[in-house]
Automatic annotation (TrEMBL):
<protein>
    <recommendedName>
        <fullName>alcohol dehydrogenase</fullName>
        <ecNumber>1.1.1.1</ecNumber>
    </recommendedName>
</protein>
<keyword id="KW-0862">Zinc</keyword>
<dbReference type="InterPro" id="IPR036291">
    <property type="entry name" value="NAD(P)-bd_dom_sf"/>
</dbReference>
<dbReference type="Pfam" id="PF08240">
    <property type="entry name" value="ADH_N"/>
</dbReference>
<keyword id="KW-0479">Metal-binding</keyword>
<comment type="similarity">
    <text>Belongs to the zinc-containing alcohol dehydrogenase family.</text>
</comment>
<dbReference type="GO" id="GO:0004022">
    <property type="term" value="F:alcohol dehydrogenase (NAD+) activity"/>
</dbReference>
<dbReference type="InterPro" id="IPR013149">
    <property type="entry name" value="ADH-like_C"/>
</dbReference>
<keyword id="KW-0560">Oxidoreductase</keyword>
<feature type="domain" description="Enoyl reductase (ER)">
    <location>
        <begin position="7"/>
        <end position="339"/>
    </location>
</feature>
<dbReference type="GO" id="GO:0008270">
    <property type="term" value="F:zinc ion binding"/>
</dbReference>
<dbReference type="Pfam" id="PF00107">
    <property type="entry name" value="ADH_zinc_N"/>
</dbReference>
<dbReference type="InterPro" id="IPR020843">
    <property type="entry name" value="ER"/>
</dbReference>
<dbReference type="InterPro" id="IPR011032">
    <property type="entry name" value="GroES-like_sf"/>
</dbReference>
<dbReference type="InterPro" id="IPR013154">
    <property type="entry name" value="ADH-like_N"/>
</dbReference>
<dbReference type="InterPro" id="IPR002328">
    <property type="entry name" value="ADH_Zn_CS"/>
</dbReference>
């Protein structure tokens, strides 16, 4: 499944099967998730498009080890694994902490995540450069687990940073209950005693929000911030996670944030929130994180194993993958679309 030409729809094409070189691992892909970031990527203009085309899509991948390159140890053919996407050099100080998403040398070394610069997971086979990027799945179902590599890991990282503020009596807001958002609600319920308020523009997404544990699910409109203030006795929310990231949602996120709250902008729709006396309540912290660490991926998978998160999925064959992207673009996917190549 490749994005081949700027502005054109992605296409299913036939390419040669890759072969693992020294240190590499070849996966037979069992499942690959479809993320809204790919829609954003496919809207970028030619002038500053950062990847080489064609780009095989898919940055959420799970597979079965099909072949091991020379020197790979610790894995066996047939192992079921999930792929850690935001791969780094493995040696810099960030990577040493498992924060390969913030590798200081990836750009300089030309290291890209599968599906975002390197060949991606929406394919029959996926080549992985190092076995440390693979987390064993064991008995976990790859189909419902694969979205956790991004739609789980990204909100997990964002939420974990705010847990000290999510004490009993606090409120957390999730804006956008799509792929990432519907997992975020479950993570908040599993990890904190906070009351969870979900906001979305579509009724069926609000239903999903309630099904997966939101205490309140409200329409995301120009009155949303006011409603969150009403629900919180005028104080606002202690943490707001914006999985849309457009200017109206980011502005609303700022307006519903309590004194000393965290506003985390995860969506990449270009919105920004000014910080300064009078712009938000006092001591609001605003951040825009990217994905999560290797250790955090292991933690998210443990939560799935414990039954604390369950991703709602719609499945598609490889030939139907372009339709999954169309439906995502139209806002019609309930939960996450997963391709079964
Ligand atoms: P998605 O399409 O599955 O979900 C988006 C949800 O937002 C949908 O339910 C949609 O109805 C809702 N929505 C749209 N406009 C809204 C509004 N004004 N108010 C409230 N809800 C609204 O998308 P996704 O795959 O979950 O991705 C969410 C965002 O996160 C995207 O921008 C994506 O690019 C970004 N993302 C960022 C990172 C990161 O590391 N920062 C990682 C993954 C995804
Ligand atoms: Zn993504
Ligand atoms: Zn590094």
């Amino acid at each position: 499944m490749q994005y081949r030409e700027i502005g054109a729809a992605p296409q299913v094409v036939t390419v040669p099967d890759p072969e693992p070189g020294p240190g590499q691992v070849l996966l037979k892909v069992s499942a690959a998730g479809v993320c809204h970031s790919d829609i954003a990527v496919m809207e970028w203009p030619a002038e500053n498009f950062p990847y080489a085309l064609p780009q095989t899509l898919g940055h959420e991948g799970a597979g079965v080890v099909a072949a091991l390159g020379e020197g790979v140890t610790g894995l066996t053919e047939g192992d079921s694994v999930a792929v850690y996407g935001p791969q780094g050099c493995g040696r810099c100080a960030k990577c040493a902490h498992g924060k390969e998403n913030y590798c200081t040398r990836a750009a300089e070394l030309g290291i890209f995540p599968p599906g975002l610069g390197a060949p991606g997971a929406i394919a029959e086979y996926l080549l992985i450069d190092d076995s440390r990027f693979l987390v064993p799945l064991g008995d976990l179902d790859p189909v419902t687990t694969v979205p956790l590599t991004d739609a789980g890991l990204t909100p997990y990282h964002a939420i974990k940073r705010s847990l000290p503020k999510l004490v009993p009596g606090s409120t957390a807001v999730v804006i956008g209950t799509g792929g990432l958002g519907h997992v975020a609600i479950q993570l908040l319920r599993a990890l904190s005693p906070a009351r969870v308020v979900a906001l979305d523009v579509a009724q069926e997404k609000l239903e999903l929000a309630r099904e997966v544990g939101a205490h309140e699910a409200l329409l995301s409109d120009e009155r949303a911030a006011e409603r969150v203030r009403e629900l919180t006795g005028g104080l606002g929310a202690q943490a707001v996670f914006d999985f849309v990231g457009a200017q109206p949602t980011v502005t609303a996120a700022g307006a519903m944030a309590a004194v000393e709250a965290d506003v985390t902008i995860v969506g990449i729709a270009g919105g920004a929130l000014p910080v300064g006396i009078g712009s938000t309540a006092f001591e609001v912290t605003v951040s825009a994180p990217y994905w999560g660490s290797r250790g955090e991926l292991i933690e998210v998978l443990e939560l799935a194993r414990a039954g604390a998160v369950e991703v709602t999925v719609e499945t598609y064959g490889l030939d139907e993958a372009p339709r999954a992207y169309e439906r995502l673009h139209q806002g019609k996917i309930k939960g996450r679309a997963v391709i079964l190549p």
